[in-house]
Amino acid sequence: IISLIIVKNLYMENKLLVDWLKHAYKMENKLVAVLNKQAEDAENFPEIKEKVTQHIEESKGHAEIVKQCLEGLGADAPDFQADLAQVGTSLATMFDGDAEEYKVIKNAIMGFSSENMEIAVYTTIINIAEQAGEDNIVKVCTNILEQEQEMATWLEDNLADLVVQIYDEQMETEELNGIDGEMDDESEDVQE
């Protein structure tokens, strides 16, 4: 009876770990698709494009590491292709209808949110793997967690500068287009 309980507990720990690893695998692959689009949107922002491109490669590596963890547990990686369409709609529709020039800000906000979700997922996997005695999974997922934390910190540190840069560019464009002048003319009419 005791050995049956031990086997059942190991199965449940591994099932839980496998389920969360499958979730992480799909998440990483979905985010690669989103990051590819964000890299395109950041064409006029070389520093952002470089960082997003770097994170694309990291995310591909994360997916491969998670796949290896799954295989080490005797599980197959899930098919994520069917879910890719949902990523674009679920993340992008939060800001649907906003002006084109704000795409980079929207992408940074979505990226920051996604990174924090990834941090939570890998923290969960690490905790489950510790309980299951899967030291290798703890080690590789801790490395992934550190990269996710670094990207989240980078986004948090750079979001304010990005907003200021785009705001300044927008104000400059409006001044060049005479929007300030039109407003001054209207205010004079009101005073008369």
Q: Give Rg in angstroms.
A: 23 Å
The low-confidence parts are: 3-11, 87-94
N- to C-terminal distance: 94 Å
Helix content: over 70%
**Strand proportion:** under 5%
SSE order, as H and E?
HHHHHH
Q: What overall form do the CA principal axes indicate?
A: elongated
Average pLDDT for all residues: 79
Question: Helix tally?
Answer: 6
Structural class estimated from helices and strands: mainly alpha
Can you give a write-up of this model?
The chain is built from six helices and no strands. The chain has helices at residues 2-41, 46-72, 84-92, 103-132, 135-176, 179-191. Helix 1 runs antiparallel to helix 2, helix 1 runs antiparallel to helix 4 (103-132) and helix 2 (46-72) runs antiparallel to helix 5 (135-176). The chain is elongated, with a radius of gyration of 23 Å. Residues 3-11 and 87-94 have low confidence and may be disordered.
